[in-house]
Amino acid sequence: xxILCPHxxxxxxxNGMGRKPLNIPVKIICDTLRAHSTVAGAALELGCSRGxxxxxxxxxxLTVKEVRS
Length: 69
Description:
There is one protein chain. The chain has helices at residues 26-36, 39-46, 50-59, 64-68, and strands at 2-4, 11-13. The protein has four helices and two strands. By secondary structure, the protein is mostly helical.
């Protein structure tokens, strides 16, 4: 994709727009969460944010408390 630079006006070739989405399966998130027992520890191991874990579990209809029990 070729875009126009807003600062200098030159055309710039861009190979994609932004970061690719993480697609970590819910099972892996649940297993990692059980192993670490904290969302922060699981997020650190998986290389994602705590919010990503909460959001993925919410979409799957789960809560952190349900997974840890």
